[in-house]
Amino acid sequence: MKQYLALCQRIIDEGHWVANERTGKRCLTVINADLSYDVAANAFPLITTRKSYWKAAIAELLGYIRGYRNAADFRALGTKTWDANANDNAAWLANPHRQGPDDMGRVYGVQGRAWAGPDGQVIDQLKKVVDDLSQGKDDRGEIITFYNPGEFDRGCLRPCMHTHNFSLLGDTLYLTSYQRSCDVPLGLNFNQVQVFTFLALMAQICGLKPGKAYHKIVNAHIYEDQLALMRDVQLKREPFPSPRLLINPKIQSLQDLETWVTLDDFKVEGYQCHPAIQYPFSV
Ligand SMILES: Nc1nc(=O)c2c([nH]1)NC[C@@H]1CN(c3ccc(C(=O)N[C@@H](CCC(=O)O)C(=O)O)cc3)CN21
Ligand SMILES: O=c1ccn([C@H]2C[C@H](O)[C@@H](COP(=O)(O)O)O2)c(=O)[nH]1
Predict the structure, then answer these.
(1) What is the pTM of this model?
(2) I need a labelling partner for 82 at 20 to 30 A (CA). Which of 23, 53, 160, 250 fits?
(3) Residues annotated in a binding site for dUMP
């Protein structure tokens, strides 16, 4: 939690104002942030200086793991976070590749599970990594990347957290995740949960111990209409200790994640937080 607050404070102290054409808003911006999470110690990086809707963040992760491309499927899992990008973005609504209401296009999970190869083959990046790690193998290329410039025109948004690189040292699993663009008040609250949970889940289904997760962010920003709430409300609060994440131990395979797992299989223990803050969301 301290590293999150330190990043927010750094943006306020050192940030540069950058105009963003896509949203029409200005963002207070810094370049480069390195966060890390101790998954071995189960220090779940939930924001405590406001109420965090962590279940929605895990629902997003589950949707990516399942290769979903439709905001309705994400809603069925328990999150509305893709509704606006799928349905309220003028450029995407006018895009001939959009397949009707709620379609997000070939984003995140589609690239992770069904990357289109040059000869028509479908490449399942996640399954390759799970199969290798389950056999104790790390070929130094255990990478799942959603970043496919050849198909940017087929999706509603370019992936923000775009690459997850797993590593093995003995029977301990590590994760390094890369993010090109980060909405620190809203997105990072979710992305921290996702990096942590992705490592915890992969270790569990591959029969490994979780180690540390490293989260590398390039452009970290606060939108102009979020700034006062962050500076004058959230940053004035004292953080509480980290809670713990409990994952149903019956989750034992990728197939389990694809078929029966729901948000009821995740619990948070010891979460103490300050009241909710509603930050404006930019589409
Ligand atoms: N501008 C922007 N910021 C983002 O963080 C973001 C995007 N766009 N587009 C794609 C996804 C969608 N994400 C989202 C979307 C909405 C919330 C949000 O509204 N969160 C609220 C309430 C969540 C709830 O009630 O479930 C929050 O207070 O955290 C968070 C992340 C993250 N990504
Ligand atoms: O997982 C996510 C997804 C999105 N974001 C934020 C980062 C930016 O504020 C917007 C995306 O806009 P771009 O113009 O494509 O950079 O969404 C996030 O923080 N986390």
Answers:
(1) 0.98
(2) 250
(3) 22, 180-183, 191, 221-223
First to last CA, the chain: 27
What gap in Å lies between CA 182 and CA 15, rounded to an integer? 14
Rounded to two decimals, the ipTM of the complex is: 0.98
Tell me which residue has its CA closest to atom 9 in ligand 1. Answer: 85
Residue 162: which H helix or E strand, with range? strand 161-169
37: enclosing H helix or E strand: strand 25-38
Ligand 1 neighbour 282 (Cβ under 6 A):
yes
Question: Phi and psi for 177 in degrees, rounded to 5?
Answer: -115, 140
Nearest one of 268, 243, 238, 235 to 37, comparing CA atoms? 243
Whether 206 is catalytic:
no
- What token pair was written down for 199? 């490592």
Stretch 72-100: mean pLDDT, rounded? 97
Contact between 46 and 193 under an 8 Å Cβ cutoff? The reply is: yes
Question: How close is the Cα of 182 to the center of ligand 2, in Å?
Answer: 5
